[in-house]
Write a structure and sequence with these properties.
The chain is mostly helical. It is built from ten helices and no strands.
Length: 225
């Protein structure tokens, strides 16, 4: 009787497994082909979608940058047309959302406060944008301040103040709050805001502005004594 080594048995088992796989493939060839086609199709579609998504992002970014350049140069009508086109053709992208914000800014600059408020609110319904969302609340506050609705202005300045990550944004909100408090004769609240700007701000010009305003308040208080 011939004795088989363990490695020979393993080789035979492997060979049998291959043969069984071949037989299985022959009987289920259509299933195998279908699976392979499905995998290939999925990979192609996934690659194509990713390429389309990247391409769409880049196109929307390019159009947005052009529109912002027009805005910065005071060419508001041309900028407005491009921003509107962005919201229509590239909806869902971050730059289409930011275009809504920029349209609100144009409305504000043109004095259309109700329209600006509506557009800022539309922007705030989109996905949170760390750079633009705080500015949108500040924009709303400025609109309400211009309309003389100080209560809503204060509410939105406070939200913006809470959401701003950068020190300058926070300081500017506190300066604005102090301005409204002064208009409402809430002197202590105004002084508190200005002192906080002086203590926390990292911007020299903002600090100087807060110091000047605080000095004027103190002079006025001395005159009233």
């Amino acid at each position: 009787m011939v004795k088989h080594k363990k490695k020979d048995l393993k080789r035979d088992e492997f060979k049998e497994a291959i043969q069984e796989l071949i037989i299985f493939y022959k009987h289920h060839r259509k299933v195998f082909i279908g699976i392979i086609i499905g995998i290939v199709a999925t990979l192609i579609l996934s690659f194509s979608y990713r390429k389309f998504k990247i391409s769409r992002f880049e196109r929307s970014k390019e159009q947005y940058n052009i529109a912002v350049a027009l805005f910065d140069n005071g060419r508001f009508e041309e900028a407005k047309s491009r921003f509107k086109l962005l919201t229509e053709e590239y909806w869902g992208t971050i730059f289409a959302n930011r275009a809504v914000f920029m349209l609100a800014c144009i409305s504000y600059k043109e004095g259309n406060l109700d329209e600006a408020i509506s557009k800022f609110q539309d922007f705030l319904k989109t996905k949170y944008d760390e750079l633009f969302t705080p500015n949108a609340y500040e924009g709303l506050a400025q609109c309400y301040e211009q309309k003389g609705d100080f209560q809503k202005a204060i509410e939105n300045y406070k939200i913006a103040l809470d959401k701003f990550k950068n020190n300058l944004g926070k300081a500017e909100c506190m300066i604005s709050l102090a301005r409204i408090y002064l208009a409402e004769q809430k002197i202590e609240e105004a002084k508190k805001m200005l002192k906080e700007v002086i203590e926390t701000s990292e911007n020299y010009e903002i600090i100087r502005e807060a110091e000047r305003k605080l000095k004027l308040i103190q002079v006025q208080e001395e005159l009233n004594e």
